[in-house]
Design a protein that fits this description.
It is a single chain. By secondary structure, the protein is α+β, with helices and mostly antiparallel strands. It folds into four domains: 108 residues, Elongation Factor Tu (Ef-tu), domain 3 (Beta Barrel); 67 residues, RNA polymerase II/Efflux pump adaptor protein, barrel-sandwich hybrid domain (OB fold (Dihydrolipoamide Acetyltransferase, E2P)); 79 residues, Helix Hairpins; 50 residues, no CATH class. The protein is 38% helix and 26% strand. It is built from six helices and 14 strands. The protein has a six-stranded antiparallel β-barrel. A four-stranded antiparallel beta sheet has the order 2-9-7-4, with no helix packed on it. The protein has a four-stranded antiparallel beta sheet with strand order 6-5-3-8, with no helix packed on it.
Length: 347
């Protein structure tokens, strides 16, 4: 029996092909940042006077979502009156400036003829400079009033793009809101979907742009057998679009997957929505089963903290002994990685 089993096992290990796969988990996202779920915020402080939409309502770009009123209901009236007053001040300053310039010209002619003192001529010039500074100050004041009026015109909050109202911050209607506070969440329609997979660092070195990916969407019946994609049922095809150059805070690498051209389309948006969970298997090289087993096992030993019994050692001596053990464990892991990827380069 053993004489038959061993040859069959060797044939299985060295002759049967196996597709290397890098498994990952993630979710469906929109490729374009403008197509992702966005928060609609208040542009000015105040209180929500009226909502123009409800949860789940379809909106177009520019449709009103809410109206915010200032805490002072007479603010717009006072700003309008202040603007009219500043405009009148500017008109008076311009008239005074014109008169002062005439005085400068007159004193200049009289001073040249010796009929006016130099002090009078210089005084007329100083008055022109003072009026010019006052006119500039008044115009700056008008600009400030116009800015305040422009901000108040932003009291009507509009949809930044087409989409569907996902949720409303209805508590904002009964309380004061500040500029930047969230009023509603807007989910876009017809976004270009991609899958965001998080892949282990041990596998990401073998992932390349354009490699095929098998995807299993959350809630979609499917059967996947790693290594033999031909027997998969209920799976969908994709290909690697991009690979992040650095790891996430979790230590995993993000891989974006787009639909595979020429293959059956992914499920409709009604079935696979943005944020739906996904499992994926990135298909890499075709190797023998024995080679793949060697690749998987070559990652060991893992870097586990090695507890050290200090025994008779205490204090600094015990710490040095522990550090030595940790360094040895790290060296073992580095040797495993060098062996693994060195073999891949020579494959």
């Amino acid at each position: 029996m053993i004489a038959v089993t061993i040859p069959l096992l060797l044939v299985l290990l060295f002759l049967v092909n196996w597709v290397q796969t890098a498994p990952g988990r993630g979710e469906v996202i929109a490729l374009n940042p403008e197509d992702r779920v966005q928060q609609v915020t208040a542009l000015v402080p105040g209180r929500v006077e009226k909502w123009f939409v409800v949860d789940g309502q379809q909106v177009k770009k520019g449709d009103p979502i809410a109206r915010i009123i200032d805490n002072d209901p007479d603010l717009l009236v006072r700003l309008g009156a202040e603007r009219e007053q500043v405009i009148a001040q500017i008109a008076a300053a311009e008239q005074a400036m014109a008169t002062a310039r005439l005085d400068v010209n007159r004193y200049s002619q009289l001073y040249a003829e010796g009929l006016a003192a130099r002090r009078d001529y210089e005084g007329a010039q100083i008055k022109v400079a003072e009026l010019n500074a006052k006119l500039a100050e008044t115009r700056a004041k008008l600009s400030k009033v116009d800015i305040a009026l422009g901000r108040q015109s932003a009291q009507l909050v509009r949809a930044p793009h087409d989409g569907r109202i996902q949720s409303l911050n209805t508590a904002a209607g009964a309380t004061l809101v500040s500029a930047g506070d969230m009023l509603a969440t807007l989910a876009p329609d017809n976004a270009q979907r991609v899958v965001e997979l998080l892949v282990d660092g041990r596998d990401v070195a073998l992932v390349r742009k354009g490699q095929p990916v098998r995807l299993h969407f959350e809630g979609w019946p499917a059967i996947q057998f790693s290594g033999w994609p031909s027997v998969a049922q209920g799976m969908f095809d994709g290909r690697v679009l991009t690979i992040d150059p650095s790891a996430q805070t979790s230590g995993l690498f993000r891989v974006l997957v787009e639909p595979m051209p020429g293959k059956p389309a992914w499920p409709d948006n009604n079935f696979v929505r943005l944020g739906s969970k996904v499992r994926g298997w990135i298909q890499m090289e075709t190797v023998t089963i024995g080679y793949e087993l060697w690749r998987q096992l070559n990652d060991f030993p893992l870097e586990f903290p090695t507890p050290v019994d200090p025994g008779p050692y205490k204090g600094t001596a015990a710490k040095a002994l522990s550090d030595k053990a940790g360094t040895k464990a790290k060296g073992s892991k580095s040797a495993g990685y060098d062996s693994e990827y060195g073999s891949e380069d020579g494959k």
